[in-house]
Structures are given as C-alpha cells and as structure tokens.
Design a protein that fits this description.
79% of the residues lie in helices and 0% in strands. It is mainly alpha-helical. α5 packs antiparallel against α6 and α11 runs parallel beside α16. The N and C termini lie far apart (86 Å).
C-alpha cells in the first residue's frame, strides 16, 4: 500500500486527536448519571446498527463487479435499493409512528440481516431482492432510531440541550470511529485474510444480531400517534399538511433531500472516480480514510453546537458551500490535469490523489451535517408524525438518486459530480432562507414576550393606584 494513503490517514488522526484533547469546559455540558446511562445505551445500539451498514459499504460495488455485472447492471441494483426506500420508506415510517419505534428498530435488524444473506448468491434476481430489503432497512435506520431517541429523551424529562450531546457523540462514534473500524475490518476480511468480498456482509449480519438482542431487552416502546382510528392514508395527509403549512419544515426537507441525494450519488461514484482506468486501490483503507474525515467533521460539529451564540442555521450555510466546491473538484481536475491512459491497471494517479483530498473535505462536511440536521429536525418537526415526515423527506432524495443512476452510463463521472455540486449550492441558498425565516419567528416571539411583560407591568401599576 502506498505511503500517500497512510499520510492522509495519519494527518486526519492527528487533527481529530487535537480537537478532542483540546476540548475545555466551555465545550462540555454537565449532565446527570441517569442521562449518561441512557445516552450510552443508545449510542451502543446505534453503533451496532451503523456497523451493520458500514461493513457493507466498501465492497458492495466491488462485489457486484466481482460477480461480472456491468456498470449499468450495478446501477440498476442501486436503483432498486433507492426505489425501495422511496416507495416503502413513507409506509414503514408511518407504521413506526403508529405501532412503535422499538418494533421498527427490530424490523430494521431482521430485514438487513436477510439482505446480507442474499449477497452469497450471484444471481441477479436474488441480489435485486437483497437491494429492495436494504432500501427498506435504510429508511428505518434514518428515521426510526432518531424518532425513538427524541421521544424517549423528552419522555424521561431530560434537558432539551442535552439532546445535541447524544447526536454529536452518536455521529462521532457511529458514523466516524465505527465506520473506520468497519472499513479496516472489511479490508482485512476480504483482502488480507482472503475470505472474499462476501465476508464483510457476514460480519454485518453478526453485528446486527447483537444489536437486535440489545433492543429487545433494553429499550422501552414509544409512539408517534398511536390512535387506532387513524389510517396510513390519514397519517400521510396529516404529514403532508404539516409540511405544506410550515415553511421551515418544507425548507428543511428540501435541504436534506439535496444534500443526501448528492451524498448517495457520491457513494456510488467515489470508486470509479479514484480508479477510472481500473487502478488497484485499497477500497477498505480508502473507505476508512473517508470515514475518518467524517469523524473529524462530527468532532467539529460537537464544538459548534455547544456555542450558545452560534446557530446551526448559520454555520450550515458555509458547510453546504464548501461541500459544493469539494464535489466540483472532479470537473476541475479533469479539465486541468486530465486522466492518462498510461495509468491503466496501475496505482492511483496524481489526479486521483487530489480527488481523495477533496473527497475527504466533503466527508468532513458530512460529519458536520448529520448532528446538525438532527438538531434542526428535533426543533422543527412535531413529535406525533416525526418518522412519517422524515421519510417524506426521503422521497425526492431517492427519486433524484434513481434518476442519476438510471442514466449512469450516459454521463461521465465528472458530469454527475457537477450535478451534485449544483444541488449542494442550492442547499446553501435554501439554508440561508431557513435562517432568515427562523430569525423572523424568533424576533416576533421576543417582541410578543416583551409586549406581554409591558402589559403585565401596566396592569400592576394600575392596581397599585
């Protein structure tokens, strides 16, 4: 393995270590032992859930190509996953609100374990079923667990500001450290030990089984709107009405869809972008490097969110702009550096090294995005329809990704990165609008409070007279 990979990895380890060690009292919030026990239990389960997802990441594209499928065939498999999430996501989100978020977490484990088992088959139809199951699982992963956490947090009477601690720590460990370990473990299983590209999926199933047991025995059930007379159609209508009536929620949904759509397109494209001429690259180690960058971002987010004077709506504008520039790099590199045919089958080219750095910057932005969007969702989305609304947000996201992947053979990789960059710039603009709207509402609230206090003081003076 080239020293370049080790240097990039090592520099990021150093940056994360400096950020974590240098945290002072102003970066910490004092909590209770009951909250810490609750937080640690959730983070343990969340890390196991994310390990089940991350272990599959480095080798899912490689496994399909290993079975002999073309780029177009692989694109259609990915479409099946995102299409499944789009079609069934809102349904499972509503069911989670109605019948319980704990049950939804258990369902996630079962469906994803079954999806992992399908990877042992090289038959296209079986793999297609696996992608559909994976799409359902993804919808549950990014809605049911967060919904359970928010509801349980307030049900137990914990301080609202403590919620950001759980979000940032869960992302730091689950989307950072666990992702790195998963990438290295996947690389070890499939490469070093020679167990083949299916072995990471078996490891994922094992981790999900442990998480399933913990959920069953340590979590209590909570609901959104459990009323028996409310059908799924009624839940959909209620969620759609809430989104249409509240500009903040609508903006938040559009921002999430634009960013996550670009992010999932990146997941599909980073492998061919770094090895356009089939260069030999250590997929697992590069995946771990990208996840370390995400960990760096979540560490930055934990500092940003503890600053009482700095609002999430403000700094996320900068994050979206930086992410747009980072995904514009493939076009700039292709324009000014080009791709030499002499690199066929060799190691990573000079342009690939530049792209790896820009992709690390994008992953830093992703690391900041996750806890920040979670905090905004906890502020703006009503509890009784939380899972349903969160999965509504995923409909345009999955539709966008499906359209991109359907035409994956029609456009060069650099063009698809350019499209993603445009969407990220749109997210920055919408984030600016969300900041303005929330500022106006905050100002009205403060003015109303001041007016009420003055009126109360006047009444008091009259009573004295």
């Amino acid at each position: 393995m080239e020293s370049y990979y080790v240097v990039v990895f090592g520099l990021q380890v150093l940056a994360v270590a400096i950020l974590e060690v240098s945290k002072g009292n102003k970066d910490r919030i004092h909590t209770t032992s009951a909250f810490n026990a609750f937080k640690n239990n959730y983070i343990l389960v969340y890390c196991l859930m994310m390990a089940g997802d991350w272990l599959q990441g480095p080798y899912v594209y490689f496994l399909y190509s290993h079975y002999g499928f073309s780029k177009g065939d692989i694109g259609r498999l990915f479409i099946a996953g995102f299409g499944s999430s789009m079609v069934f996501g809102t349904i499972v989100g509503s069911l989670a609100d109605k019948y319980g978020r704990k049950r939804a977490g258990i369902t996630y484990c079962v469906t994803y374990i079954l999806s992992c088992f399908t990877k042992h088959s090289s038959q296209y139809r079986v793999l297609l079923v696996g992608r559909i199951l994976g799409g359902i699982s993804t919808s549950l992963l990014f809605s049911a667990f967060e919904s359970w956490l928010v509801a349980e947090h307030f049900k137990r009477g914990f301080e609202p500001q403590w919620l950001s601690l759980t979000f940032s720590k869960a992302i730091f460990l689950g989307n950072g450290l666990i992702a790195i370990i998963s990438g290295l473990l996947a690389n070890t299983l499939a490469g070093t030990l020679g167990l083949g590209p299916v072995s990471p999926f078996d490891a994922a199933a094992f981790g999900l089984t442990i998480g399933l047991v913990l959920i069953c025995f340590t979590w209590s059930e909570n609901y959104g709107d459990p009323s028996e007379d409310k059908t799924l159609i009624a839940q959909f209508k209620a969620a759609a009405t809430i989104i249409a009536a509240d500009e903040k929620i609508a903006l938040l949904g559009a921002i999430q869809s634009l960013f996550e759509g670009s992010m999932y397109t990146f997941v599909f494209l980073w492998t061919p972008a770094l090895s356009p001429n089939d260069q030999e690259i250590p997929h697992g180690f590069i995946f771990a490097t990208l996840m370390l960058a995400s960990m760096l971002g979540s560490s930055l987010a934990s500092r940003l969110m503890t600053r009482m004077t700095l609002r999430v709506e403000t700094y996320m504008q900068v994050v979206f702009f930086v992410s747009a520039v980072s995904l514009l790099m493939p076009i700039l590199v292709n324009q000014f550096m080009g791709i030499s045919s002499d690199d066929q089958g060799g190691t990573m080219s000079a342009s690939g090294r530049v792209l790896l750095l820009s992709f690390c910057v994008f992953e830093v932005c992703i690391g900041i995005f996750w806890p920040s969007i979670m905090k905004m969702r906890s502020q703006y989305i009503p509890e009784d329809s939380r899972s349903t609304i969160m999965n509504f947000f995923r409909i345009p996201l999955n539709l966008f990704v499906c359209l991109v992947l359907y035409k994956v053979d029609a456009f060069p990789v650099s063009v698809m990165f350019g499209m993603s960059s445009i969407f990220l710039m749109m997210a920055a603009i919408l984030q600016r609008r969300l900041s303005v709207v929330s500022d106006k509402l905050k100002t009205r609230f403060v003015e109303g409070r001041v007016s009420a206090e003055k009126e109360h003081d006047s009444e008091t003076e009259l009573l004295k007279i």
